[in-house]
Amino acid sequence: MLCCLLAVSVDAQTSRIKRISLMTPDLDQSIAFFTGVIGFTLDFEGTLPPGGEPFLGPVFNIDASKPIRRALLSTSAEARGLFLIEHPEAPAPDPDKPTAVVTVVEVESIESTLALAKAAGAPVSETITDVTPEGMRFSEAMITSPGGHAILVYELSYAP
To answer: Does 8 map to a domain?
Structure first.
């Protein structure tokens, strides 16, 4: 009976992704890429003092006894949805190898975004156009950021 009472009294939980955290060997280059190419805005950039945030060291395998540079960026819909952490020993990007993590970002204009990415020297895949299970047309392409991150950008077509 206690089990049933507990099951009835527990509310359903809603989950949402708070932010994506990415390591980059060059914070300034990544900030320029995500703001100038992908369309994020910079909310905060700063340096933590040694030991300033205890979880970053073990989680990202960073020497937390040294200062750590980081930045928070937003889209028009998600405040502070991207957290960039500078890690000079982060592996060099290799656009020919698959990545374990892909960040998916809706953009206003895929053509403009891809043109900016190419102008910045970022590797860009071909653009694919398809239809979502709900019947929405979309175009998408993969961009590799200067920090080696796979960024899948897409644009929804709202016309029938």
So the answer is: no
Residues of 33-68 as b/e, b for ≥16 C-beta within 10 angstroms?
A: bbeebbbbeeeeeeeeeeeeeeebeeeeebebeeeb
Two structure tokens written together for 123: 């590797």
Scan for tokens 């369309």, then name that residue: 39
Q: How many CB atoms lie within 10 A of CB 148?
A: 19
Q: HSE on the CB side for 160, CA within 13 Å?
A: 0
Note whether residue 11 is domain-resident. no
Question: H or E segment at 145?
Answer: none
Q: How many CB atoms lie within 10 A of CB 116?
A: 19
**Is this structure's pTM higher than 0.85?**
no
Classify residue 106 as exposed, middle or buried by CB count within 10 Å of its CB (0-12, 13-18, 19+).
Answer: middle
Is the Cβ–Cβ distance between 94 and 148 less than 8 Å? yes
Strands (DSSP E) contained in the chain are 20-24, 41-48, 68-74, 82-86, 102-106, 128-131, 137-144, 150-157
Number of domains in the chain: 1
Mean pLDDT by 10 residues, the chain (160 residues): 40 70 92 96 93 76 86 92 87 67 91 96 94 90 90 83
